[in-house]
Structure formats: structure tokens, C-alpha cells
UniProtKB/TrEMBL annotation:
This is Diguanylate cyclase/phosphodiesterase (GGDEF & EAL domains) with PAS/PAC sensor(S). CDD domains: EAL (cd01948), GGDEF (cd01949). SUPFAM superfamilies: CheY-like, EAL domain-like, Nucleotide cyclase. The lineage of its organism: unclassified sequences, metagenomes, ecological metagenomes. SMART domains: EAL, GGDEF, REC. It comes from hydrothermal vent metagenome.
Length: 571
């Protein structure tokens, strides 16, 4: 039957006209029916017409049905067409042979009309379901564009075909500039509208035969299978940038809003930059980041000078996947100081990575890599468990309650089981819930994910503190602090650096402290390195501080020694 407004096509193959007429009478009211009276004719029609299903007789002159089935199943163009044998050969061996050759069903003559209708309908239903599942596996559900898997498969086929000649292939990696702000401030429905609109723009910028795909998030790719030179790719890149500079309209509630986003584009050319699809994708990604660094709203071709970055990234990812098991990742602890008493009352857990080959890897480099791969959950859970375990032992040694602040990636926090992971960690390590502080970036607090508030409230009900990190660097406001159950606000270090001489920073820090205190929130100032900064914060009644003025981040052993020294000083 017709499943999706398209009339399905059945090919009947039989050398007896009376059999063809009988089957046609059964099926012609529901399907488009084609006929073939011999094997060669059937194969030709199958290749040219691509029927949805074939009803195939076995006993035919010149080429029997079994041989026709073998030919069809060995050809890429026809191998997926389902075949039902309808034949007078009714032995178990004959039926077994039919299924072994790839038939989906086997009917023996004479056949009843109701049976034929039902078997045909069932097989078309199965084919329709398989097609739907395959489509969902290969196409992005939002934009209807090919997804990463299909893009890489197409790219692989194109590169194999082009390897036989001198044809060049261009791969574009396109990232929407500042798309995150749309999601964070207007919500994910608005973000989805933007992605759909710009996906359509990209399709309008390319030629027939080019592929536009979505990798995920705000990342798109374009494959130009055949280009004569770089100028062709350059022309399309400029066309994309121009198209993106035109506003799009999106609906917010009952209102319409115009949005303009730019794009950063990276381009890799094969075979110049390689012939492996994943390497080519990585290089186009690298070129895109060069566009980001050069001001955005531009494009760059991959160059060999960028190759060091590619190799570094691949090497880092390879080593990072083994770092946890090899115990290369170590949690360090930076003291958090109570400003009035100038004594340590807690610490922030900060991850460090020292690789025996690559040396010390900066956190901003490997954390972002972990978030881009599938490693952030494993690493995040390691940090939470290790730091809670260390601090529980520390409490027993010092007999002093110290709170522990742990940074959590937005990707980790949004997982449905995050709350359970935290609670289970506390149970396993016996660390008190009321001494654990979960640090979240302010961008997460602005996200419109429905479960964020629910997760925060669940953590708070368990006694866990919640802090908003890097406050003041984005779009947070009084309404943000009132909406979510935060207990601590952390002032970003960028406002502390010149606070004793920069009037604007002084006004801003004063406002943050006053606003937080009005909401019964505590305030921690990050990046305190001088006595002048500390004196200003103390005068403004800031609650806590951390920074190199007091101590850098240390291993748990050194942090324990530091605490003992501070305790002796206070006695």
C-alpha cells in the first residue's frame, strides 16, 4: 500500500502471460505494476526503474529465477530490492535455496489473492521501516541534512573515485559565530530556527552535486567533489559569507525577531591536504579555528604551517584517552581564604595533566579537548570522586571542616544521571554533602534546558552548595541569581587584576558584592595576587578570596602540609 503519498512499484517477472495477468489483477489497484517475461528483461527494468519489490518466478527459459536473483543481489544498484519468489517449485530444498540467495519470502503456486496482497504489503512495510531507520541514522533530524556518518561516507567514496585522476575535492568546515549566545539568551527553540534557516542558506550557496551536511551543534560541512582550482572554493566561501550577513527572521513567542550571525570557514583541499576523510575533516576544522582567531566572519585554507596544531591535537587526544588509567591526571587544590580572618576554609579542585612524553598540558587545552570528545564524563567523575575522597581523609587528619569546590562541565551537568552520580560519590567517599560546592559557569545558568533548575534544586535539597563561576563575564544579572538556587558568586579574575586603580572594575566589583549580599549569597574573588587587591576586597566586605597571594594549586600532600602550617600560625 501507499505509505508516504508515493505509489510503490512492483515488478512481476514470469514467462507465462497468464500468471502475469493474474498477479496484475491482484495488485494493480494498489500499486504501479511493471512486467518482465525473462531474466535479462527483469534485470534491465530493475536497474532503470528501481522497483520497490520484485515478484520472481523460478522456472524460466535461458535464465531461471535463481540466477536472476544472484545477478540482482550482486549489483550495488539492485541488491537492496526485496524479492519474493512465486513458483511451482514447492520442495523444502527449493524454498531453502530461495532464502539462501537473498529472497525475503517464498510463495508456491497456485497462490491465493489475499495471501499475495498480505505478503507484498508486509514486505513493503518492512522495507519502509528499514528505509526510515536508515534515514534517521544518516540524516540530521533538525535540518534534514546528511549527518556526520553520511558526510564521511560520501567523502570517502568521492576521494576513492578522485584518486584515479587529477580531480581536486574541497571540504568546508563551517561554524556559526556566537551561536551559543542565541541558545543561552533566547532558548533552544530559537536556536533550532536559526540552524534550520542557515542550513537552507548553505544549500542555496552550493552547486548541484555538492553535499551540505551538519556535524552537530552549529557545525556544518560542505563537500565540493570536483573543483578545478582553489578559486572555485574561494568563490563559494565568499558567497556563503555574503549570504550569512543577510538577516533571518525567527519567531519568539508571538513576536518576530531578526537575527544576523556570521560564519567562520575552514577549507581543506584533497589531495593536497590528504586523502583520508577524518584527517581532511580535522584539517578543515583547524583552518576554521584560524578564521576564528583572525576575527571571524572570514575563511582560511588549510596550510602546512597549521599542521603542527593538527598533529598536536591528534597526539593530545590519543594520550588523553589513556591518561586516567595511567594515573597521569592529578587533582591539585588551591586554598580558598576567609577574608576577615585570612585563614583557609576550603579549596578548589583543579585538574592537572603531566604526560611523560608531552610534559605539562595546560588545562584550557585538554579540558576543551575532553569536551569535544567523549571523555569529559569519565574525567569529570574521576575529579569528583578523587577530590571527595582526598578531602574526607584530610578532614579526619586536621579535624577542621573544609569545603571543597569542584568545577563541573556544562556537558557533564546536563546529563540526566548527574545528580545520582554526585550523591553516589558522596555515599562512597563518606564526604559530607554540606561541604561540597559544585561550580557552574554562568553560561550554563542561562541555558534553557528544562532539567537544569530541577537538577540544581535536587542538589541543594541534598545539602550541596552551588556557585556561579566567572560571574560578570557574560550575561548574568540579578534575575539570574534570583532564578537559580545559588549560594556563592565567584568574581572572575579579569575584574581583580587592576582593581586598585581601575575605577570601572571597582564599581563593578562593588555592585556584584552588594547584589550578592542582598540575596544572602557569599562572594569569592578569584585571582588575588597582591596585598592591594586583598585590601580593596576586604574594605568592600568580600567574603572569600583565592589566588597566588595565598597559594598556588598544590597536590593533596602539599595542601595538607600547607594547612598544618596555617593551623599552627593561628594557634
Amino acid at each position: 500500500m501507499n505509505h508516504n503519498s508515493r505509489i510503490e512499484t512492483i515488478l512481476i517477472v514470469d514467462d507465462a502471460k497468464i500468471n502475469i495477468e493474474a498477479l496484475n489483477t491482484i495488485l494493480c489497484n494498489d500499486y504501479r505494476v511493471l512486467f518482465a517475461t525473462n531474466g535479462a528483461m527483469a534485470i534491465n527494468i530493475a536497474k532503470n526503474q528501481k522497483p520497490d519489490l520484485i515478484l520472481l518466478d523460478v522456472i524460466m527459459p535461458a535464465m531461471d529465477g535463481y540466477q536472476v536473483c544472484i545477478e540482482l543481489k550482486s549489483d550495488l544498484e539492485t541488491q537492496d530490492i526485496p524479492i519474493i519468489f512465486i513458483t511451482s517449485k514447492n520442495s523444502d530444498e527449493d524454498e531453502e535455496m530461495g532464502f539462501q540467495l537473498g529472497a525475503v519470502d517464498y510463495l508456491t503456486k497456485p497462490v491465493r489473492p489475499a495471501t499475495v496482497k498480505l505478503r507484498v504489503h508486509n514486505q513493503l512495510q518492512i522495507r519502509h521501516s528499514e528505509d526510515l531507520i536508515l534515514h534517521q541514522a544518516l540524516y540530521d533530524s533538525l535540518t534534514r541534512l546528511p549527518n556526520r556518518a553520511l558526510v564521511l561516507d560520501r567523502l570517502k567514496q568521492i576521494l576513492v573515485n578522485n584518486s584515479r585522476g587529477k580531480t581536486k575535492t574541497a571540504l568546508f568546515f563551517i561554524d556559526l559565530d556566537d551561536f551559543k549566545k542565541i541558545n543561552d539568551t533566547l532558548g533552544h527553540n530559537a536556536g533550532d530556527q536559526v540552524l534550520i534557516a542557515y542550513a537552507s542558506r548553505l544549500q542555496q550557496c552550493v552547486r548541484d552535486g555538492d553535499t551540505v551536511g551538519r556535524l552537530g551543534g552549529d557545525e556544518f560541512v560542505i563537500i565540493l567533489p570536483s573543483i578545478a582550482n582553489h578559486d572555485v572554493a574561494r568563490t563559494i566561501a565568499e558567497k556563503i559569507l555574503e549570504a550569512f550577513n543577510q538577516p533571518i527572521a525567527i519567531a519568539i513567542a508571538t513576536e518576530s525577531m531578526k537575527i544576523v550571525l556570521t560564519a567562520s570557514i575552514g577549507i581543506a583541499i584533497s589531495p593536497d591536504d590528504g586523502t583520508d576523510p577524518k584527517i581532511l575533516l580535522t584539517k578543515s576544522d583547524t583552518a576554521m579555528y584560524q578564521s576564528k582567531q583572525n576575527g571571524r566572519n572570514t575563511y582560511h585554507f588549510f596550510t602546512k604551517t597549521m599542521n603542527d596544531h593538527v598533529q598536536r591535537r591528534l597526539e593530545l587526544e590519543s594520550h588523553l584517552r589513556q591518561a586516567v588509567n595511567k594515573k597521569e591526571l592529578v587533582v591539585h587544590y588551591q586554598p580558598i581564604i576567609d577574608i576577615p580572618s585570612r585563614s583557609p576554609i576550603g579549596a578548589e579542585a583543579l585538574l592537572r595533566w603531566k604526560n611523560p612524553i608531552l610534559g605539562n598540558i595546560p588545562p584550557n587545552e585538554f579540558i576543551s579537548l575532553a569536551e569535544q570528545t567523549d571523555l569529559i564524563d569519565e574525567i569529570g567523575q574521576f575529579v569528583l570522586h578523587d577530590s571527595c575522597q582526598n578531602f574526607q581523609r584530610l578532614q579526619q587528619q586536621t579535624e577542621k571542616p573544609l569545603f571543597l569546590a569542584v568545577n563541573v562541565s556544562p556537558l557533564q551537568f546536563r546529563k540526566n544521571d548527574f545528580c545520582n552520580i554526585v550523591k553516589k560519590t558522596l555515599e562512597n567517599t563518606h564526604f559530607p554533602a554540606d561541604l561540597l560546592e559544585i561550580e557552574l559557569t554562568e553560561s550554563l545558568s542561562l541555558s534553557k534546558h528544562n532539567n537544569i533548575l530541577e537538577t540544581l534544586e535536587s542538589l541543594c535539597q541534598h545539602g550541596i552548595r552551588i556557585s556561579i563561576d566567572d560571574f560578570g563575564t557574560g550575561y548574568s544579572s540579578l534575575s539570574t541569581l534570583r532564578k537559580f538556587p545559588f549560594t556563592i558568586v565567584k568574581i572572575d579574575r579579569s575584574f581583580i587584576v587592576e582593581i586598585y586603580k581601575n575605577k570601572e572594575d571597582q564599581v563593578l566589583v562593588h555592585a556584584i558584592i552588594s547584589m550578592a549580599h542582598a540575596l544572602n549569597l557569599k562572594v569569592i574573588a578569584e585571582g588575588v595576587e597582591t596585598e592591594e587587591q586583598f585590601a580593596f576586597l576586604k574594605a568592600e566586605n568580600c567574603d572569600m578570596a583565592q589566588g597566588f597571594l595565598f597559594s598556588e594549586a598544590q597536590t593533596i600532600e602539599n595542601f595538607s602540609a600547607y594547612l598544618n602550617t596555617q593551623i599552627k600560625k593561628s594557634q
